[in-house]
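Collaboration report, partner site 2.

Our partner group contributed sequences for two proteins of shared interest, and the home lab folded both. The records are reproduced in the order in which they were received, starting with the first partner submission.
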Amino acid sequence: DQFKQSLDEGITYQSVVGARGAFFKVTLLAYGYTFVSKGTVAGHIKHLEHETRVYERLKPIQGRYVPVFLGTIDLRTVDKDYWIYFETYVVHMMFMSWGGLLLDDDKMDQLGVLDEIAWVDEGIEALDAVHGKGVLHCDVRWANILYNPDTNGIMLIDFERAELFDEAEPSDEESDKEESMPMSTEQSQIWKKIWDRARKENYDVVFIIEDALEIKN
């Protein structure tokens, strides 16, 4: 109902734009709840729809290693759009809980957590959790690795480039089937490529965290 009435109150463009989305702060005026939104133009809606599917896959780890996904809206259904700059109108928005703060050694020191957290272990744990749900992030970089004060750990964001594969942790029934039905050579090669890429993402997150927080080996 709030969006039907107006987009002038409760939505604040944060002047942060990525390759396919713009960042907003959103407040539900009737309740005072505040969260974040990623909005995009008509030509990039498919990428946010893909990201929605990724968040659905990651539902079991939302709120710990990734933000909580809250839903989407096509503003055109309420006859609205949101102008952000010259001839650029956001028409599709997805909503999530706040992910956290960008990693910065001075900021983390001010918060008193720089030397209190095993940062590299936290980063690997977050990525392992994502990989364990059948998702390759495919865009592991500084801007997508956050410190969340509520969990006191690392939270990963921005899954529009992520790739989905069969979940890495089969059920007991599936495990029994796998024991009696060995993978073909082609299947083995596919899984090897997936896990090689997953390991590469782990190496990337280690380097990024060590560089951002000036962690000495």
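Second partner submission, folded after the first:
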Amino acid sequence: MPPAPRRDLRYPATGPARARHASPPMNAPFPIRTECPPGACTCRREALLADPNADIRVLRLTREEEKRLVARLESVTSLADLRHVGDRLQAQLGIVLTITPSANGVRTLRGINIQLEDQPGLCRKTKQAIPAAIRRAMETTPEIAYALLDEQDLLGGA
């Protein structure tokens, strides 16, 4: 059997093979999140990396860092602590976190709207994990939810 032809390593793969195995940009001064499997996510990571003027801070949130963030969010003990973590998310990663009570009233924790502003590079799983971690924190420490509701005038000015 003849030997397999040698591939010239001076020329990178092109086409779909190149897209699947694209390496992170060499100009990123920090480790960035690995890409999600094709079709599994809507994070638009490639478009973010292709734009030289884009804010790629959100890609700092690697899977390991995301686990640490979720653990930190689950361990918050007050609304001030939660707001502080939200401010740090915005300052360090550019992620805008909005937590508001529903306009229709709050009977359970599902009545509290926890949203992350949509932005390129933010993984679909991360968009689900952060609000879920905040809800778990509010379940273990209901004072956070009470403080949020009091901040929005729970008693109607009474």
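Feedback sent to the partner group on the second submission included the following. Residues 46 and 121 are 8 Å apart (CA to CA). DSSP finds six helices and two strands in the chain.
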